[in-house]
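User: Fold this one for me? It's Membrane protein.
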Amino acid sequence: MPFKLSKPFWQVLSLGTLAGMRTTSAPVITSHILSHHQSKNLEHSPLKFMQSKAVATALKVLALGEIAGDKLPSAPNRIKPAAIGARVLSGTFAGAVIYKAVGGNVVLGALLGGTAAFASTFGTFYLRKHLVKSSHIIDPVLGAIEDALVIGSGVGLSKLA
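Assistant: Here's what I get for Membrane protein.
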């Protein structure tokens, strides 16, 4: 089925937001969408690999590892510089790929995705910390709720393509 996305601006902001919550989420969702809805705009692009079902599957496996790793006491805070960088790169990459796939401005897609990821990284970090204190729900449980939100949002975004 061909790739059609009428409002890439909102999808890229959503992907960037999810990247701030879970680093691998934006590339996973992007690759899943593109592996089911090929874009002619990616045919002769270095980004064509994102349309591969094998890449989509490999990214999903990596995402499962991130979900499990987030629950470990040794998991670093998402606002450490390396973690911020990874989340911003994830949102930037997904935004660029989506905009390239729709024939849009790749730089704009990258900026939108990266900016949303940066803002979401801090917003969700402090929200989660606040919820742990105010609700007395332990952090791993809130992390699992966050995982469910990311997965559900990813499914929803996948249906828009």
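One thing worth pointing out: The chain has a mean pLDDT of 93.
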